[in-house]
Amino acid sequence: MSIINSQIKPFASKAFHNGQFIDVTDQTLLGKWSVVFFYPADFTFVCPTELGDLADLYPEFQKLGVEIYSVSTDTHFTHKAWHDTSDTIKKIQYPMLADPTHLISRNFGVLIEEAGLADRGTFVIDPEGKIQIVEINAGGVGRDAAELLRKVKAAQYVAAHPGEVCPAKWQEGDATLAPSLDLVGKI
């Protein structure tokens, strides 16, 4: 069963954010666009490259009213220790959620049960708390924050313009499509 357009499930987490430990719940995500970005573990190899890439583009996401939430099955204490010791992770200004109970990872269907780690799952959630985009990569395949940003812009455009859709490789300002009988077989 597809989770596209499904409501996020309840969760509560401690997070490390801007030098503080904060509480984040499913309710925190409501009212704005959100990206929930799962990764396997702190102090690893591909993960810091992805999180650093997101940190570099975080101001662009914020301009769109989007909050980023990274999530691993590590604790909030581990997130702080990683933040304090890695130059790449020090750049992060978005909340780093802890999921040591694996509830959030299970809720989003990305928990690797036998390893106790999360797959590389990316979820774009609209202001109503409904999942609009899902991407899950194999552990050795890193994600691209610029492509994620493009997808978020497309999702926001489609949400704001009912009856229009964004074609492949759509960029902000490009033409969209209005599906109709006249377009059938002409694209």
TrEMBL record:
The keyword Cell division does not apply. Its EC number is 1.11.1.26. It is found in: Cytoplasm. One of its GO terms (molecular function) is NADH-dependent peroxiredoxin activity. Coiled coil: none annotated. It is an enzyme of class 1 (oxidoreductase). Keywords: Antioxidant, Cytoplasm, Disulfide bond, Oxidoreductase, Peroxidase, Redox-active center. Residues 2-157 form the Thioredoxin domain. Its main location: cytoplasm. It comes from the Bacteria. SUPFAM superfamilies: Thioredoxin-like. InterPro entries: AhpC, AhpC/TSA, Peroxiredoxin, Peroxiredoxin_AhpC-typ, Peroxiredoxin_C, Thioredoxin-like_sf, Thioredoxin_domain. It catalyses: a hydroperoxide + NADH + H(+) = an alcohol + NAD(+) + H2O. Thiol-specific peroxidase that catalyzes the reduction of hydrogen peroxide and organic hydroperoxides to water and alcohols, respectively. Plays a role in cell protection against oxidative stress by detoxifying peroxides. Belongs to the peroxiredoxin family. AhpC/Prx1 subfamily. NCBIfam families: AhpC (TIGR03137). Homodimer; disulfide-linked, upon oxidation. 5 homodimers assemble to form a ring-like decamer. This is Alkyl hydroperoxide reductase C. It comes from Vogesella aquatica. The lineage of its organism: Bacteria, Pseudomonadati, Pseudomonadota, Betaproteobacteria, Neisseriales.
